[in-house]
Amino acid sequence: MRYFQLIAAQSGPIRRSCRLRYLVLGGLLALGSRPAPTQAQAQAGPSVSAAVATLLRPAAVFDGQEMHAGWVVLVENDKITAAGPAAQVVSPPSARTLELPGLTLLPGLIEGHSHLLLHPYNETQWDDQVLLESQALRVARATVHAQRTLLAGFTTIRDLGTEGAGFADVGIKQAINQGIIPGPRLLVVTRALVATGSYGPKLSVDENVPQGAQEADGVDGIIRAVREQIGKGADIIKVYADYRWGPDGSAQPTFSQEELTLIVQTARSTGRGVVAHASTPEGMRRAILAGVETIEHGDGGTPEIFALMKKKGVALCPTVAASDAVAQYRGWHKGTDPTPLRIQQKHQSMAAALKAGVTLAQGGDVGVFPHGDNAREAELLVRDYGLTPLQVLRQATSGNAQIFHLADRGRVAPGLLADLVAVVGDPTQDVAALRQVQMVMKGGVLYRQP
Ligand SMILES: [Zn+2]
C-alpha cells in the first residue's frame, strides 16, 4: 500500500518548493493516455497496482558488481522483475518505457553512517545542537535532510544516533514509511549507548545536562537500556566503545569488555546487530571481541587490530568525509596547508586496514557535513585514499547491503526492491558521476526523473 499512499503526499508545497515531481509509476502512465490512480482507486488495492509496469532503458546498468551496456530493467509495482540485455527482457503489453539516454542505472545507494537529526557543525556546534535546539526544530530539519538524502540517490540509510533527540528517528522513519514525507528507507539506532560520564555535552560540574546518548552501565543497567531502545524501535544498537574522556582529553576506552559483550548478547538474542564507535586500538579490540558488526571511524587502528577485524569478519566504516570536514572546520585550508596530524593518521590507519583486507562499509557520518552531500565519502575514498570508483560503487550498493543484512536491495536483480538511481555518465570510471543524479526511484515510486 505504501506506494499509493504516497500519492496523497505528492501534492502541495513539497512539490512546488523543490521543483521536483514525485510521481508514482501510475503518474508516469498519465503522461500517456491513462490517468494516474486516485487515492480512492488506490484503496481498491492490488487490482490497480497489477497494471503498473515500467521498462527502464538506460545506456548501461551497474548491477551492484559490474557494468552492463545495453541492459534494460523491468519494474513491476515495487520490485524489479527483470534485468538483462534488451532483447531478452520481455515486458508486459501494458508496460510503459522510461528512456534514460546517456545514463547509468544503478541500485539505490546505501548510506552507512548518517545522523538525520544533526546539521553541519560549522553552522551550529554539536553541543549547541544538543542543548539549545528543541526537538521540534531538530525534527523539522531532519525531514528536509531526509528529502535531500533521497534526492541525492541514497534510498537507504543507516542512521547512527539521534544525538540527544531521543527516539525521534523512529517517528521520522514512520513518517517516511507512511508516505507523509519523502525520504530513504531507514535503519535506526535511537539514542545509542554511552558509559556514564564519558560523553557530552559537558558544562559546569554542578549541572547535569542532557547528554547526546543514553548512559548505561553494569549488567542490569545495560540490559535494561538495550531492551528499552529495542522496544522503542531500534533496528540496530550503537555503542560508543571509546570517547574523548582521557585525562588529557584523548580518546580512551569506555565500556569494559564484559559490558560490551553483554550489549552484543542482549541485542543479538533479539536478532539485532551492534555497531561500535571506536577509534582507539583498545576500544576497537574490545568491540571486535564482543562481536560487533561494524566499527565506526577506526582512526587509531593498528595492523594488529585490523588483522583481528579481518579474522572476526568485522567491517570498518571509516567516515573519511567527517574527518576531512572537521579538519577544515578547525581551520585546515585543504590543498594549501600541510595535512593535519589527524588526517595523516587517518591515511595511515586506512592504509593498514586495506593492507589487512578488512571489509569496508561506506558511510560518511553525514550531518557533520550537509545531508544530500553523501557522495562526498565515495569521492574522498577515491581522490584521497586510493580506492577505485568501482570499489566505492560496490561498497555503496551491494557491499553495504550485505554488511547490513539487506538481502532485498543493493543489486539490480529480479525480486529485489525497485530502488534505482540513474546518473550521467559512467560512475565506475568517474566517481563524480554520483553527483549527477537524474532519476531516483524507491520501491517503484519515482521521486526524481530526467
Ligand atoms: Zn556519527
From TrEMBL:
<dbReference type="InterPro" id="IPR051781">
    <property type="entry name" value="Metallo-dep_Hydrolase"/>
</dbReference>
<dbReference type="InterPro" id="IPR011059">
    <property type="entry name" value="Metal-dep_hydrolase_composite"/>
</dbReference>
<dbReference type="InterPro" id="IPR032466">
    <property type="entry name" value="Metal_Hydrolase"/>
</dbReference>
<dbReference type="InterPro" id="IPR006680">
    <property type="entry name" value="Amidohydro-rel"/>
</dbReference>
<dbReference type="InterPro" id="IPR057744">
    <property type="entry name" value="OTAase-like"/>
</dbReference>
<protein>
    <submittedName>
        <fullName>Imidazolonepropionase-like amidohydrolase</fullName>
    </submittedName>
</protein>
<dbReference type="Pfam" id="PF01979">
    <property type="entry name" value="Amidohydro_1"/>
</dbReference>
<feature type="domain" description="Amidohydrolase-related">
    <location>
        <begin position="104"/>
        <end position="445"/>
    </location>
</feature>
